Amino acid sequence: MQYTRLATYDIVKGNFPELTTMAEKGILPLFAREPGFVDYGLVDAGHNKVVSISIWDTREQAQKSATTAATWVKDNMADRVRLVTSYVGDLALFHGAPVTA
């Protein structure tokens, strides 16, 4: 089983594309170096809301990612976003459509 961390943020300065670029160059490489990292993404939820999704091999790794993310956000975009929620849970179902040619 894999584990997911979901976090929601309010954008208080800037816009979603700017934050995405910052995350892609900053937090994504940090996560990618961590043991158990599987995947990471951001969702533009509208109304200046962002959802961060990361997938990990273990609950402990997912929980540690919350600390990594909090530190990175504090150091790099504390003036741009505000954390609203953060959850870690079992990833029960995450399935894509089959690729067809």
Strand order of the largest sheet: 2-3-1-4
Overall geometric form: globular
Main sheet: strands, sense, barrel: 4 strands, antiparallel
Counting DSSP E segments of at least 2 residues, the number of strands comes to: 4
What are the secondary-structure elements, in order, as H or E?
Answer: EHHEEHE
- Summing up helix and strand content along with how strands pair, one would put the structural category as alpha+beta
The first-to-last residue Cα distance is 30 Å
What portion of residues belong to β-strands?
A: 35-45%
Low-confidence stretches: none
Work out the helicity level: 25-40%
Give me the Rg, rounded. 14 Å
Q: Give the overall average pLDDT.
A: 94
What's the total helix number? 3
Keyword list:
34% helix; four-stranded antiparallel sheet; globular; single chain
In short:
The chain is an alpha+beta fold and 101 residues long.
Description of the structure:
- There is one protein chain.
- The protein has 101 residues and is an alpha+beta fold.
- Helices cover 34% and strands 39% of the residues.
- It is built from 3 helices and 4 strands.
- It has helices at residues 16-25, 27-32, 59-76; strands at residues 2-11, 37-46, 49-56, 81-91.
- Strands 2-3-1-4 form a 4-stranded antiparallel β-sheet.
- A hairpin with a 2-residue loop joins strand 2 (37-46) and strand 3.
- The longest helix has 18 residues, at 59-76.
- It is globular.
- It starts with a strand and ends in a 10-residue tail after the last strand.
